[in-house]
Amino acid sequence: MADNTPALRKRQQIENAGRTMFLWVAGAAAIVGISAVLSLSLVERITFRQEVIGEKNKTVDTLKKNNETVETLKQQVRVLNTNPALNATPRLAGTEAISVILDALPANPNSSALGASLQQKLLNVSAVSVDSLTVNPIAGVEDTGEESSSESGGENEITFQFAVTASNASSLKQVLRNLEKSIRVIDLTSVTIEQQSSRITLNAEGRAYYQPETKVELKEKSLRP
Questions:
Q1: SS3 (DSSP) at 163
Q2: Do 225 and 171 touch, CB atoms closer than 8 A?
Q3: Per the domain annotation, does 177 fall within a domain?
Q4: 152 is in which domain, residue-wise?
Q5: What 3-state class would DSSP assign to 96?
Q6: Would you list the DSSP string of 8-41?
Q7: Do both 37 and 72 map to the same domain?
Q8: Which pTM was predicted?
Q9: Is residue 140, in this structure, part of any structural domain at all?
Q10: Quick one: the chain helix, strand, coil %, rounded to 5?
Q11: What three-state secondary structure class fits 186?
């Protein structure tokens, strides 16, 4: 009977070599996979840090430009404060001439204040009676607790209508002069005058303006980690 021991040993060695090779291949594949994941993570971190550095550089550039603009703005304000027309315009005691511009274009519509100004000052002329006065609050901007009129003006505009009656034309002229001299910017878009016997009625529609304030503030921006 032939001895099969050398053949068995050779087969066993082949099987052992195959298992060893499999373990080496599996280990190499695991190392390659881990390396790929670590490399991808490293690339993402580098990219994220580059984005952070880029945003910081943008912020620095913006701050530099703002600082350069500040002096120019200060100089322009100084020039405006010496403007003869602004200095000649009535204003509160102790305030600078440039405050007239803020009064002409308030930061919010404040329809109630406009209505009070029209009724108590601009339309309050001797021998003139105010028959009607309507100031239309701006829907979505002013919370008046009442329904806003459907007649809305353009951007940053408040519309209003009024009717006044006088016994002479000179009193109505004074009303128009008051509107023209008002510190707050007012335009009359429609004016009609009717006379019935000794009474003269002036019906007018107009608009006033406001300029929402610009807020300058630092903000935080979240970047993808």
A1: strand
A2: no
A3: yes
A4: 99-209
A5: coil
A6: HHHHHHHHHHHHHHHHHHHHHHHHHHHHHHHHHH
A7: yes
A8: 0.59
A9: yes
A10: 50, 20, 30
A11: strand
Per-residue pLDDT at 93 exceeds 80: no
DSSP 42-84: HHHHHHHHHHHHHHHHHHHHHHHHHHHHHHHHHHHHHHHHT-H
What CATH code is carried by the domain that includes residue 125?
Answer: 3.30.1360.100
State whether 122 and 152 are in the same domain: yes
**Contact between residue 194 and residue 156 where contact means Cβ atoms under 8 Å apart:** no
Q: How far is CA 75 from the centre of its chain?
A: 25
Interatomic CA distance for residues 101 and 85, integer angstroms: 11
Q: What is the number of other CB atoms lying within 10 angstroms of the CB of residue 82?
A: 9
CA R_g for the chain: 40
Complete edge-to-edge strand list for the sheet that includes strand 186-196: 128-135, 157-166, 199-209, 186-196
Dist. CA 221–CA 225, nearest whole Å? 12
Q: Which two tokens stand for residue 140?
A: 């979505």
* 220 in any annotated domain: no
Q: What is the pLDDT of residues 171-213, one digit of tens each?
A: 999 999 999 988 888 999 999 999 988 899 999 999 999 888 7
Name, in order, each residue with C-beta under 8 angstroms of 6's C-beta and a sequence gap of 6 or more: none
